[in-house]
Design a protein that fits this description.
The protein is an alpha+beta fold. It has five helices and seven strands; from the N terminus they run βαααβββαβαββ. It has a seven-stranded mixed β-sheet, with helices on both faces.
Length: 181
């Protein structure tokens, strides 16, 4: 079972350690390499600004019992006028394949759609990132198509095709009796 909470300065070491994983950097161009403590501090500061500006809700994904950081899930507003947001996530290596990302995406999605008034939640996954596509599908998102040659990724050395998924109010899958956050 996972718990979501806002990031704090106490998480800087955990963020830096997780984001040094080449697999996270492989799929997320926004994660600098090598990843430093300064990068983690800047990330926490950015998430705090995002909360204040109502532009980004970034959560630490933690073990519900111990509080250990297992990953991240964030929801950013892409079109405030039309109430459209996008969700993104990563999970540290030791927790992959255990349903952590799916659970975190479900919880954050339920919160965004039920509590924040989001009318469309989007998720983009690199066409080659099959694991991320599985998370989207298990979390209840509908595959809409492929955004072909959407942008160039210097890290990947190629133009990226993204699979586009969406989730609308009423489609979210929260556990029975479970509050989104």
């Amino acid at each position: 079972v996972v718990r979501l909470r806002p990031w704090t300065e106490a998480d800087i070491f955990a963020i830096a350690e997780a984001c040094r994983d080449p697999e996270i950097a492989r799929w997320l161009d926004s994660v600098p390499q090598p990843y430093t403590l300064a990068d983690a501090r800047a990330y926490v500061a950015m998430t705090k600004r995002g909360w204040k500006e109502h532009a980004l809700a970034a959560f630490a994904v933690t073990d519900a019992g111990s509080g250990e950081v297992w990953g991240s899930v964030g929801i950013s507003v892409v079109d405030a006028e039309h109430e459209v947001a996008e969700i993104g996530y990563w999970v540290k290596r030791a927790q992959r394949g255990r349903g952590v990302a799916t659970r975190a995406v479900r919880l954050a999605s339920c919160w965004a759609l039920r509590e924040c008034g989001i009318k469309r939640l989007q998720l983009r996954a690199d066409l080659h990132n099959v694991a991320s596509q599985r998370v989207a599908e298990r979390a209840g998102f509908t595959r809409e198509g492929v955004l072909r040659s959407s942008r160039y990724s210097p890290r990947r050395g190629r133009r990226v095709d993204f699979v586009l998924y969406s989730l609308l109010p009423g489609e979210e899958r929260c556990g029975e009796g479970e509050k989104p956050l």
